[in-house]
Amino acid sequence: xxxxRRAITVVQGVDQLRTxxxxxxxxxxxxxxxxxxxxxxxxANLTDDGKNAINASGGFPGAYVRVRRxxxxxxxxxxxxxxxxxxxxxxxxxxxxxxxxxxxxxxLTLDPTNAAAPDLIEVSRFDVSAFTVAIVNGGPAAGTxxxxxxxVRANAVAQFNGTDFVLRRSGLML
Length: 174
What we know:
Jelly Rolls; 4-stranded mixed sheet; 5-stranded mixed sheet; 2 domains; single chain
């Protein structure tokens, strides 16, 4: 049995999906405020983060899941001097530590919540103070992926493999 293809629905914002009813079948929605396409995934039990997953308030159970595209990543907010921070793909794939930011060693934990293979998180360190930056996998195989060394500009890229974040590359920046 085949089903007819349906046109993509254009919606202004996230709140319209949240206050709407979950459909009975797969449908695609483009959100104008995010410039992203979402696919209704029947039965999906995901945490609503407004970027990768959006839950409807009624109707059938499931979630709208962002359709991943092979394009350059989005810039997230600059990182701070907080000793422990959790990074989500919904916060932006490209993260930076500006110059003169660090006041102590920091740990950045890559959280797999709502991540989907092959999502990336890239951290670029522009701070050249005498503190380290440890990048840690927050998935089941938890552990330090890489430690960016003291007093140099460096970056690292981690990719989600469906279960855990794995280190793709790291290095010093000129």
